[in-house]
């Protein structure tokens, strides 16, 4: 990562498919900011209650204390005047106003780190991510591993039968797939790999 200038704000976006390590990367950056004695606050959408109601939790069970909110504007009610870094996980679950909120924070001098899906289960851009990517200073695109063929994966395959755009879930409801193996509709799960090396 670059040498950042002091006293000005900016927006960092960590995007990619499910299981690509977005939350792990968010947690890594937040940890390093804390080592740097920065005052950090982390937010996540209330709808994301799959592992925990308040904590941000990665698929590998790394955890981070956060404040769950329903609307992005609520960040301003919770924001302390001395906060230097704001982290937002699952940013795709907020409405379009999250873009103005991130911009307002950055103009105030805050470093804003957002993590979220760039594509939905059909492979369509997941709004408001395209707008956020357009105004961000720094963009990191993460890739998972396709569970069908082992190639780098940029898509999230839905495994449960629903056409709603928002269906909260983790392993069992979605799996990582590359563009060749991805289907734009829900399908059966790929048989799991044995993980005996890690037992
Ligand atoms: N197909 C996969 N490819 C890569 N990592 C996977 C896969 N399935 C499960 N994982 C696990 O998911 C972790 C990433 O979790 P997380 O940071 O929560 O991802 P994201 O926020 O992008 O969904 C990896 O370190 C790994 O332990
Ligand atoms: C593809 C897709 C995903 N979701 C949901 C499923 C999970 O709850 C989150 C993504 O979490 P992760 O940290 O990136 O693993 O989003 C959805 O609602 N709609 C979709 O199309
Ligand atoms: Zn594949």
TrEMBL record:
<keyword id="KW-0237">DNA synthesis</keyword>
<comment type="subunit">
    <text>Homotetramer.</text>
</comment>
<keyword id="KW-0067">ATP-binding</keyword>
<dbReference type="GO" id="GO:0004797">
    <property type="term" value="F:thymidine kinase activity"/>
</dbReference>
<feature type="binding site">
    <location>
        <begin position="166"/>
        <end position="169"/>
    </location>
    <ligand>
        <name>substrate</name>
    </ligand>
</feature>
<keyword id="KW-0963">Cytoplasm</keyword>
<keyword id="KW-0418">Kinase</keyword>
<dbReference type="Pfam" id="PF00265">
    <property type="entry name" value="TK"/>
</dbReference>
<feature type="binding site">
    <location>
        <position position="178"/>
    </location>
    <ligand>
        <name>Zn(2+)</name>
    </ligand>
</feature>
<feature type="binding site">
    <location>
        <position position="149"/>
    </location>
    <ligand>
        <name>Zn(2+)</name>
    </ligand>
</feature>
<keyword id="KW-0547">Nucleotide-binding</keyword>
<comment type="similarity">
    <text>Belongs to the thymidine kinase family.</text>
</comment>
<feature type="binding site">
    <location>
        <begin position="16"/>
        <end position="23"/>
    </location>
    <ligand>
        <name>ATP</name>
    </ligand>
</feature>
<dbReference type="GO" id="GO:0008270">
    <property type="term" value="F:zinc ion binding"/>
</dbReference>
<feature type="binding site">
    <location>
        <begin position="89"/>
        <end position="92"/>
    </location>
    <ligand>
        <name>ATP</name>
    </ligand>
</feature>
<dbReference type="GO" id="GO:0071897">
    <property type="term" value="P:DNA biosynthetic process"/>
</dbReference>
<dbReference type="GO" id="GO:0005829">
    <property type="term" value="C:cytosol"/>
</dbReference>
<keyword id="KW-0862">Zinc</keyword>
<protein>
    <recommendedName>
        <fullName>Thymidine kinase</fullName>
        <ecNumber>2.7.1.21</ecNumber>
    </recommendedName>
</protein>
<feature type="active site" description="Proton acceptor">
    <location>
        <position position="90"/>
    </location>
</feature>
<keyword id="KW-0479">Metal-binding</keyword>
<dbReference type="GO" id="GO:0005524">
    <property type="term" value="F:ATP binding"/>
</dbReference>
<feature type="binding site">
    <location>
        <position position="146"/>
    </location>
    <ligand>
        <name>Zn(2+)</name>
    </ligand>
</feature>
<dbReference type="GO" id="GO:0046104">
    <property type="term" value="P:thymidine metabolic process"/>
</dbReference>
<dbReference type="InterPro" id="IPR001267">
    <property type="entry name" value="Thymidine_kinase"/>
</dbReference>
<dbReference type="InterPro" id="IPR027417">
    <property type="entry name" value="P-loop_NTPase"/>
</dbReference>
<feature type="binding site">
    <location>
        <position position="174"/>
    </location>
    <ligand>
        <name>substrate</name>
    </ligand>
</feature>
<feature type="binding site">
    <location>
        <position position="181"/>
    </location>
    <ligand>
        <name>Zn(2+)</name>
    </ligand>
</feature>
<keyword id="KW-0808">Transferase</keyword>
